[in-house]
Amino acid sequence: xxxxxxxxxxxxxxxxxxxxxTSYKFITFPKLLFLCxxxxxxxxxxxxxxxNRGVINNYIQARTENIFxxxxxxxxxxxxxxxxxxxxxxxxxxxxSDLILLFVESMGSACELGAFSFKETSFxxxxxxxxxxxxxxxxxxxxxxxxxxxxxxKSKVIxxxxxxxxxxxxQIKTEIEKIIESSKILSHFNTRIINKDEKKIxxxxxLIEIFExxxxxxxIGHADIVELYKKIKGFNNFExxxxxxxxxxxxxxxxxxxxxLKGAKLIEQDDNxxxxxxxxxxxxxxxxxxxxxxxxxNRTRSRILARKFKYCDTYNGSK
Length: 319
Fold this sequence. Notes:
Layout: H1 3-6, H2 9-16, E1 24-28, E2 31-36, H3 47-50, H4 52-63, E3 67-71, H5 72-75, H6 86-96, E4 99-103, H7 107-119, H8 121-124, E5 127-132, H9 141-152, E6 156-160, H10 170-183, E7 189-193, E8 201-202, H11 203-217, E9 220-221, H12 222-233, E10 240-241, H13 255-263, E11 268-269, E12 274-276, H14 279-282, H15 296-311
Helix pairs in contact: 2-12, 7-9, 11-12
């Protein structure tokens, strides 16, 4: 697609006038809950619903629309192995999620526990760890190693009876109810940094900014999303940093955010690899990247659509 033709300098200039001018902003946005646990078989209908993650997922979805549960299985593609290993990718998922609920119930989930507790203390503050009660008093490596370290860095750790119905346990039921109730407070009213330094792009804010780009310009392919972001922001390039301001050891690519948003079902991807925002999210007026007044965003979107129609562009999403 010819961005120079469809997205004229005058259009970009007009949009830039509506950028948020402050360094941070209070916004409402759904909570993003990263669910970790033992593997399930996607080929077996209903298998996920029987897992601890599935039980929690279904319970939360029945109680609130303000929490989106993220599964690594919904985001990971083996093709990504050419760029990033699964463990590092899960660290990325943990970084952009607001909360992490980890059921330590398999070798894989035990590895996740070790990675999250050892790698970043910032993960620990949003980590709820659930273990089998029968191992609570064991002098094991898990209890004396990653669990002890996670507790030291403010993780919540609870033990439940995995042989009984999960939500019959008072402790985990209480913790899940706390998560649900907190999500109802203005749908996660939170302070977000506005990304203004291309060498220090914070992923949590970038996620919302990309969501807003898609919302304004949809349907739109990945390459155009990235180019528009740079044009509107006035960036030549950008480099991601963690919430603790440290750079990522492994390169994080912008389209990982699209994978995450799609896995969270906050955006959709069509057969032509174009991204759109589902209709139910189009009415959300609280913006981070932009500060459109009244109906200005709708007028701008109408102008964008008119230009797309005029030039009959063919959109091809690419990495």
